[in-house]
Amino acid sequence: MIEMLDPRFKDCRGDDQVERLYQGCRWAEGPVYFPAHRSLVWSDIPNDRMLRWDEATGGVGPFRQPAGYTNGNTLDAEGRLVSCEHGNRRVTRTEHDGSITVIADRHQGKRFNSPNDAVVRSDGSIWFTDPSYGIDSDYEGHRAESEIGGCHVYRADPATGEVRIVADDFVRPNGLAFSLDERLLYIVDTRVNHIRAFEVTPQGTLTGGDVLAECSKGVFDGIRLDDAGRIWAAAGDGVHCFDPDGTLIGKIHFPETVSNLVFGGPKGNRLFVTATTSVYSIMLTVNGAPRLIDRR
Ligand code: MG
């Protein structure tokens, strides 16, 4: 069900036909759409597997199992899968030949908690959040003590191997996304339950960090942008859409708690949502932000 809360949402609405593409996960997360082979891959964290939906046939099957309790996924500019692995406490890239490259697994010698979600910038750097959900218990990873002692946001440079903390004042950092011009980085804090907006400096550090939006139902998790710079955020009753000024302008309701989302389909106008046991999609009248592979 589509709920318009502000006239600015009228450009975004779809046909109100929510489809359930799959049911049978414990906690579905990390949807990523591969335009080259028209498929959606996502994580089912507690079941330690990743699944793939084929857009041509509608079929769903395993993509990777075990999957290192993978959570968030995204694509880099070459269309390669970048994954946050709770279980192995690292961020990896799956190469074109299928081999897996470790992008980052520690900072100053200490292992990460459990990388949650990642985004790739057009300069190739990979920015990710590291809350403790994968080490809090054995449910979403392996119970362990935090070596770092905090839940931070990091920037990894695959070209040099450098890993640096870019924000250390979060409680549970989670979803993150760049503005269309990449001058801003939006980051969710799920515990405090808001989205903050940081300015990205030319040196690849962050300044600012004011609160942009608060969550009005459930908690924020994954976020993505559309091609007008609006922010679409996973929340308790569905996906909340925010104008870039932070105003909640509309919601798309789903029957289960939503964890994450991605714009996909050949035109980027189909919203895919991971929601607890299920994956849903809906066609919209808006397109996702241009993908890195389309900007090259
Ligand atoms: Mg998340």
Keywords summarizing the entry:
296 residues, mainly beta, 5-stranded antiparallel β-sheet, 2 helices, 27 strands, 46% strand, globular, binds magnesium ion
Shape: globular
Which structural class do the helices and strands define? Answer: mainly beta
Main sheet properties: 5 strands, antiparallel
Instruction: Supply Rg.
Output: 17 Å
- What is the strand tally? 27
Summarize model confidence as the mean pLDDT: 97
What letter string, H or E per element, gives the SSE order?
EEEEEEEEEEEEEEHEEEEEEEEEEEEEH
Helix content: under 10%
Give the low-pLDDT segments.
none
Distance between the termini: 36 Å
Ions, cofactors and other bound molecules? magnesium ion
Determine the number of helices (DSSP H or I, runs of at least 4 residues): 2
